[in-house]
Amino acid sequence: MDTDVLVIGGGNAALCAALMAREAGARVLLLESAPRAWRGGNSAHTRNLRCMHDAPQDVLVEAYPEEEYWQDLLKVTGGITNEHLARMVIRASSTCRHWMRQHGVHFQPPLSGALHVARTNAFFMGGGKALVNAYYRSAEALGVEIRYESPVDRIDIDHGIFKAAYVNGQRITARSCVLAAGGFESNREWLREAWGQNARGEWPADNFIIRGTAFNKGVLLKHLLEDHQVDGIGDPTQAHMVAIDARAPLYDGGICTRIDCVSLGVVVNREAERFYDEGEDFWPKRYAIWGRLVAQQPGQIAYSIIDSKAIGRFMPPVFPGVKADSLPELAQKLGLNVDTFMRTLNTYNGACQVGQFDHTALDDCHTEGLAPAKTHWARPIDSGPFYGYALRPGVTFTYLGLETDDTAAVRFAGQPSRNLFVAGEMMAGNVLGKGYTAGVGMSIGTAFGRIAGRNAALAAAGKGAEHGAVKDEV
């Protein structure tokens, strides 16, 4: 065999798997499709990890118990989640940081503009890029072999048993394998196929921007689902999809392209009409539904409108908003019908029932007699200057993936493979059927990356997989 454990992928989940397998004594080869400078996939764009904790822990304040975490996940997924696997991820998030620190990851308190997450999310010092670099340094020091610009386009499987992978025509054999190669969000043809053509004759996917890596083409995922009939899970149109600045680059814009002022104002579509409750819940629990909402609007574009009262209450985006001294002027600058825009804004302003405004709580500022309602943080938009941000759907990662269990094994007709495992975005659909809440993707990748790595090392040694999350002492 060329190696004991082959890890396909180069982001957080893949690195966690490689480190765990190497710590267990296995020879490990990691294949990253991107060049070294772009290594780490979407993990390089992350900021934090959602963590369960029953009491204050260094950078985490107060408590965030298992049941609250579960209820938050249940709410955003609408119940489309595997509770057993989800709770396993939640529990694993309470103890993994000790292991992460051992591999060079440092944590810091959240920035003041990171709303509502000081209690729930542990932030990486230096962000996701620093985390990825720390893991790569640790992997190299431990003797993990790393190859860049090594995309895997197909693998050999015999009756559910992994045999080999092919990279640029080269056949690489291994005793076991971990699949952690991401989703298919940067495959425009597959996105078009998944989303199809809408009733307006539009192809919505043509207007999607990819927040993350350009290297997640889903080639291996499609090969597994179509050629090997691996058990799949998830809706191909479901994704971590955020409303981002329409001026963002096509790929790798990352966190700085997000527009975080949605809950402080109103959002209108191309027809200058509102279409959803901007104040439904705290922004970290709702930001990832807005990409899909915008994708369903004409032209896949919308506009976040705020006034001067909102300035300083959200993390400013990298590009300044369109600024105007009056609302009609703002509508003109945004290319919106002025009469419809003013009717929408006047109706909203007249419906606002202003109580005690508090953007750190689910306050009592709401609308009455308005559809859709704004249930919190509703204040008239009446204090110039006014600002508008054009929004497009920004896809972070897709949820279509491979079904698994608490051993992280890939399944064939319901039967788990003895030596093929999956982690990260390629199996996140088991936990995330739809929706998202900040930091949970890193929780899933860390938990299942470590499980997959442990069990791949056991399989390489001729032993059976262990069930359940990896436990660490804090």
UniProtKB/TrEMBL annotation:
Its cofactor is FAD. GO terms for molecular function: oxidoreductase activity. It comes from the Bacteria. Residues 4-431 form the FAD-dependent oxidoreductase 2 FAD-binding domain. The keyword Oxidoreductase applies. It holds the Pfam family FAD_binding_2. Keywords: FAD, Flavoprotein, Oxidoreductase. This is Tricarballylate dehydrogenase. It comes from Comamonas aquatica DA1877.
